[in-house]
Amino acid sequence: MNPLGVSFCGSRLRNPTVLASGILGITFNQLKRAEDGGAGAVTTKSIGPEERVGNRNPTCVALQHGMLNAMGLPSPGYEAMDDEWRQLKKMKVPVFASIYGASVEDFRRVAAYVAEKKPALIELNVSCPNTAEHGQVFGFEPSVAASVVETVKEVSGRVPVSVKLTPNTYKIVAVARACEEAGADAICAINTVAGMAINIEARKPVLSFKKGGYSGPAIKPIAIRCVYDIYEAVKIPILGVGGVTTGRDAIEMMQAGATAVGIGSGVYYRGPNVFGLVAEEMRCWMHANGVASAKSLIGAAHD
Ligand code: SIN
To answer: Which of 9, 128, 179, 226 is the catalytic position?
Structure first.
């Protein structure tokens, strides 16, 4: 038996690490780097209803304790992705397809197309802080998030649906609960934390979009708290994301309640082999601490 293996919404993962959405893009060659680096599953960059170039540079900056980005959801648009889907069939690990829209109807359209391509899961990005018209607005209100889930579930067939939640609301637990009630099969928590950096010599925001989403080690305690609280409120599995760069971080996230662990900025800090490194560090810790299976770590920190 593989002690690191976990099941997530019907997919068997060789280890709990998952490439988080938005880090290595959408193409086969980009996602293959995470598979080769040891990831248990990979998530595409969010796919949108039409072509979108995203925000002007600078869109990403490394700060002292994390990364600040405002990419602005660049996407080729779902209809331009047929060739890429054919290539993605060659992936050996499960592929999670992240999607976004500017309206509930957009989500329906993109989800209907993507579901036909049979990804292992559709992840609804209702939480991007980096555009005026998409994103967080859907994730702020339980009823609005639930309406996106309900609509997507009408067209997603047998493909499980997960919802990526924003920490930029005090209602994250209520949103998670509403999504579960609306039929979501999983929760992904968390997307980036709203942030900003200013170049004091230039007297200007560093990012062209001015504000952005903060990720990396500094947000791990925020993510751990969100996952811990969501785990107590829902029964569906959680993909825990936020600041995981080491095996110890991944174990902490699972003990908080995550079934699998997303890694995003960790790719910047440790390279695309971060997934294999984290898995190996988990294996060593489990061995040293007499833990027989990664599955037994899930929610272990709860009373
Ligand atoms: C972006 O494209 O701006 C980041 C995506 C996200 O935070 O959801």
So the answer is: 128
pLDDT band, residue 137 (cuts 50/70/90): confident
Q: pLDDT tens digit string along 240-262?
A: 999 999 999 999 999 999 999 99
pTM higher than 0.85: yes
Query: Is 128 noted as a catalytic residue in this protein?
Result: yes
Q: Which CATH superfamily is domain 6-302 in?
A: Aldolase class I (3.20.20.70)
CA angle, 52 as apex, 51 and 57 as ends, to 5°?
Answer: 150
Least Cα distance to 46 among 105, 116, 101, 118 occurs for 101
Answer whether 253's CB lies under 8 Å from 240's CB.
yes
CA pair distance 239, 7, nearest whole angstrom: 11
Taking CA atoms only, the protein residue closest to ligand 1 atom 5 is 128
Q: Please give the structure tokens belonging to residue 7.
A: 């099941």
Q: CA–CA separation, 49 vs 75, rounded Å?
A: 9
Query: Structural domain boundaries of the chain?
Result: 6-302
Q: Are 35 and 93 in contact, with CB atoms under 8 Å apart?
A: yes
Ligand 1 pocket at CB < 6 A: 22, 46, 69-73, 125, 128, 130, 191-192, 213
Residues in the chain: 303
